Amino acid sequence: MKKIGYLKGYQLDESLDFQKRELKNKGCNIIFKDSFASSKEPVSGFARLLTRIKSGDCVVIYNFSTLGFSLSQLVDHVIAIHEKGATLYSIEEAIEITTIMPVIDIFKLLKQIKFQINVDRTRPARNNAKIRGLKGGRPEKISDRQTKEIKRLYLEDIPIKSICERLKISRPTLYKYLKR
């Protein structure tokens, strides 16, 4: 039985050294790699992997989200490996797929994988937005000018209720901006 590794990055410049090291620690001498492959692009490293594996071999991956760009691609890849007679082992999830798993375990695993795929796919966009100085989340309700006005009115002993009515904000919002 040969252990054959497969790794994939979601960005062209992403370092795959950590995945590679983990695959080698699990005894993989042959490792196939793909850097960024969407569900519409051909997966050349995975295609080469399929030509190399034989019945009884074990395909080792770091985690299931690296095996497919989408849930449907993941399922297709697992089926392709199974049809070749090979087993599949995921290091992070510590799961070896050799036979049919109980249905409940499959659905739990699919839920985790779907979440991880979404995280891996959105990470590059979040990082790029951070570099451009964009911040995610809900926009601030109060501007910097209004924050200064809240502090000024508070220091002038204007009642909290009056400040809130004047700026159309709640008491908790007022206190949040007073702390800043």
How is this structure best described in words?
The chain is of the alpha/beta class and 180 residues long. It has 2 domains: 3-131, Rossmann fold (3-Layer(aba) Sandwich), CATH 3.40.50; 144-179. It has 7 helices and 5 strands. A 5-stranded mixed beta sheet has the order 2-1-3-4-5, sandwiched between helices. Strand 1, helix 1 and strand 2 (30-35) form a beta-alpha-beta unit. The longest helix has 29 residues, at 103-131.
Give the topology, please.
Blueprint: E1 3-9, H1 17-25, E2 30-35, H2 44-52, E3 58-61, H3 71-83, E4 87-90, E5 95-97, H4 103-131, H5 144-155, H6 160-167, H7 171-179
Parallel strand pairs: 1-2, 1-3, 3-4
Antiparallel strand pairs: 4-5
Number of domains: 2
- The percentage of residues in β strands lies in 5-15%
- Main sheet summary: 5 strands, mixed
How far apart the termini lie comes to 62 Å
Helix content: 40-55%
Order of helices and strands: EHEHEHEEHHHH
| Average pLDDT number | 81
Q: For this entry, what is the oligomeric state of its chains?
A: single chain
Query: How many β-strands, per DSSP?
Result: 5
CATH topology of the largest domain: Rossmann fold
Overall 3D shape: elongated
Alpha plus pi helix count:
7
Structural class: alpha/beta
Reading off the top of the CATH hierarchy, the class of the largest domain is best stated as Alpha Beta
Main-sheet strand order equals 2-1-3-4-5
- Tell me the CATH superfamily of the largest domain: Resolvase, N-terminal catalytic domain
Low-confidence stretches: none
Radius of gyration: 26 Å
Any idea what the CATH architecture of the largest domain is? 3-Layer(aba) Sandwich
